[in-house]
Amino acid sequence: MRLPLLLLLLLLVPAVGWAQTAPATADAAQATALRRANQLVLERKYESAWKLLRLLDQMNLDPAVALQKTSLALNYYTATDDLKRFAFRDLKLLDLSPDSLRQLGVDTPYYSFPARRVLEKLKNKYPDNYKLNRALGDYYFTVQQCDCAEEDLGEDEVFRRTIQYYQQAHDHGQGDYLSYFALGYSYQRLGQFQESLAPFVRSIQLRPNYATAHLNLAFVYLELKDFEKAQTHARRAVELFPDDAHKQDAAFLLSQIEERMKATAAKPE
Question: How crowded is the C-beta side of 12, counted as CA atoms within 13 Å?
């Protein structure tokens, strides 16, 4: 008589070996599901991606799944309730962006995901997982940008928390050009211009053609009266911005810098 495959495996694999194989199989399955969720995001099927991630970990106990949920929630929601509940839509290639759909107030189902509470709980359980610090930095930067949650904290405190979590993440190798830009921007908005320099410079090192970082760095150098560096980065921003509106903003800043340079040069020594 031919034995079923699962029973045959149970007979052939010692108990210890089976115990070691099962978690490895579960990890592989989860990795496959996370890759599938990421592919759905690339295909703009945001609600489908969310449903898959929710199925993977309904209680938000797994850091890897929670981090992917956080990224999806903060970047691709069409509506939100205080960053605790999020709505998503599966979009076609030529549909409006999620950001544009937010402005239209599209009525779609909400999914519960209290991002801050989930991330803080996981950080307490996994203190050495600095990807969670990065995600908390992303959360507070999103709070500032959308002005849609944490109203009781005040903007300066939101910036301070953004700095705290991004700095911890960067100290442990968890950062990219966007997180370094956000760190620099937070320092800039708090009026700590000298502190904002290094993050902006690092953002540009990681993404040389990131026009927004060049523009903000030009503003900071202007505040610090380093006019030549301000001029260099403002010119670069004018070159890099693809749209007229941002080009005009950069060109206006460049004109202000050049006027300051002329005024400084005209002053008698």
Answer: 8
Task: Convert 3-18 into a string of H (helix), E (strand) and C (coil).
Answer: CCHHHHHHHHCCHHHH
- CA dist 71 and 87 (Å) reads 14
The H-assigned helical ranges of 172-243 are: 177-189, 193-206, 211-223, 227-240
For residue 87, list its beta bridge partners. 79, 110
pTM above 0.85, yes or no: yes
Q: At which residue do the structure tokens 């109203």 appear?
A: 151
Q: How many C-beta atoms surround the C-beta of residue 92 within 10 A?
A: 8
Tens of pLDDT, residue by residue over 180-234, are 999 999 999 999 999 999 999 999 999 999 999 999 999 999 999 999 999 999 9
How many other C-beta atoms lie within 10 A of the C-beta of residue 20? 12
DSSP result, 223-265: HTT-HHHHHHHHHHHHHH--SHHHHHHHHHHHHHHHHHHHHHH
| Angle, vertex CA 60, rays to CA 58 and CA 63, nearest 5 | 135
pLDDT tens for residues 110-128? 999 999 999 999 999 999 9
Residue 12 has a pLDDT of: 38
